Amino acid sequence: MSGGERSTLDESLASGTSLVLHPSEKVCTNTHKVGDNVLATVADAVPAPNGKTIPAGATVTLNITALKRSENAKDAIDMGFNPVSMAFCGDTYPVTAT
Fold first, then answer.
1. Is the full-model pTM beyond 0.85?
2. Distance in angstroms (rounded) separating the CA atoms of residues 70 and 44
């Protein structure tokens, strides 16, 4: 974005668009619970269909939807997240994902 241009996300990202996110804190089964929100930053810029760009470093608020400790070392931990909002260029946008 250039020179004070206000960013808008009036359209959806294309189906299947992936965002690489880095959490701002360690998310653990013993320190977090379902319903907690955590912050993450976008790793790489993502072009939006309206010609704008979601910049690297944008902040995404994620709600924890699943969090289950594994019963033994060979089992995977179950973690689920749902995006709530995204903030960049001084604005915050609600996010819905399907």
1. no
2. 31
